[in-house]
Amino acid sequence: MRNLSSLKKEFLRKWIKGLRKYNSQKKNMNLLERKKAIKLSADLAMASTKDKTTLWRKALFANTSTKIDDEQDMSTTSSTPQKKVIRKNSTNSYPLRKRITGRRKILRRNHTKERVEASFIAMRLVKKRTRKLKSLLPGGKFMDDSCLVDETLDYIESLKAQVEVMRCLVTSSELFINQP
Amino acid sequence: MQPCSREMQSLNSLFNSSSSSSEIPIPQLQNHSQIQINNNNDAFHNDDFLKQMLSNLPPSSPWTLDPNNPKPLWDPNSDENVTFPNYEEQHNNLSSKFRNHQITDKSAAALMLLMPTAADSGLLHMPADFDSSQNDVVNASSAGDGSVQALFNGFSGSLHGVAANQTHHFQPPQGQSFGGGSVSATNQAPASGAPAQPRQKVRARRGQATDPHSIAERLRRERIAERMKALQELVPNANKTDKASMLDEIIDYVKFLQVQVKVLSMSRLGGAAAVAPLVADMSSEGVSDCVQTNGNGGVHPRNPKTASSSNESLTMTEHQVAKLMEEDMGSAMQYLQGKGLCLMPISLATAISTATCHTRNPLINAANNNVNNGNGNHVVASNGDGPSSPGMSVNSIVKDANSASKS
């Protein structure tokens, strides 16, 4: 188990660095874009914490790279540093994706016969839920069962850290605003 | 004779020496008497004395209680030169088998111990068909010696654990088989994990197969189970025992955390004025798994056709709330109450969700609006259509509070 506070510190540091990049164009952005900027930098920060290259991190990088490409209207100076980070980290994810998607296609079969025994019902329930979990996790479609549990563990930890950091920041900034 | 007498003389002189140095002659005396024993004395203190023993054994002729093969458990001074004529080849076989089977030191030492101590009583007798037996039954002999019996119990237990294919066949000389303990313990050889000789057939444990597929399957299942246990500590309310409900909790928790992150990333922007597009965007991103229209800088309200029915109601609700909030907080509150919802601080919401274990879906769909008048962070707690809709949040406490306040 990773140390939660060190994770939080690292996340905070990287997030602030990302946010600073957007700082120059603060006035030009409308709220939606600002929210996207914040979320993006938070995603990047979360994905780049720690040396572990779990699957969801790679997928997160890939997703954020597409998001950045969509926002070409923003000035290029701010997005290029992020782009560089993303390009560096996402180059190795593509072959992984292709390999695993091929495997998934082979595994899918048409279940024509429905069985009524209790064990099969239980198995179906579990399968339904694992499918749901896979949809939740970034890059979850490409994971198998054992890998999935590992990834969710990791993902939950980082999400928790992220939430706590953000909340602290929000409350402290509120205090700062409301004070004078 | 002469060297002997000289030795004796030296001994005598040693004895006659002063008493102050009396300590010295004694070890010397012992050394003298055990000169021929001493060549392997250091073996006592080696960690791999067993290896030394095994390497010593083949060249030596019969398995004797010769001090040339010392053992820490033996009394090296014992002069019993009891020879067992059958032992040579069998012992060679045994030693080779030991080497093959990678027996731990403990069990092998136990075996070694067993043979001499039984040999002391002259009862142990290894049959000639030692090698050919293929079953994994160990019938240990005992002269009724209680210590030997206990030793065999431990020995068979450790043997059973270590090497699946021990094929020792200890036949009692008098046809007196050992008690049922060791036999029953070794009737089931462990199927997995042991470095088995490939040609021998391993009798499987009850309910478990021996082919590698099922072994791999079992390993995979165990790995998943232990990871789920680790997850149980992270996720709150995770005292469920079966896999499906555990997965449910995990899913809900992940959704909850994701929504919180999104809400918190929005909250810093401040201002209730432009909440509407944010809310619309957030609700579309948030819970549904079929809608993936993230990069859309969507100011327009989300297309309800794409969302599932439960999300649709949520979207519309949040739209309304956002619109109302722009104008006036009071009207927004009234609208919410009409729907059976209320606004609450986000800290309270999380506290409630973690405190109450009995709600099925403790997920709170949070719309965090940073109101300018410093009311703090608020959360819209929305009730879903019921427990059937997986993506919705069911906060029964809020519902009850609202109904109570209305009545």
From TrEMBL, chain A:
Q: Which domain of life is it from?
A: Eukaryota
Which protein are we looking at?
A: Uncharacterized protein
Q: Which organism is it from?
A: Trifolium pratense
From TrEMBL, chain B:
Q: What is this protein called?
A: Uncharacterized protein
Q: Which organism is it from?
A: Trifolium pratense
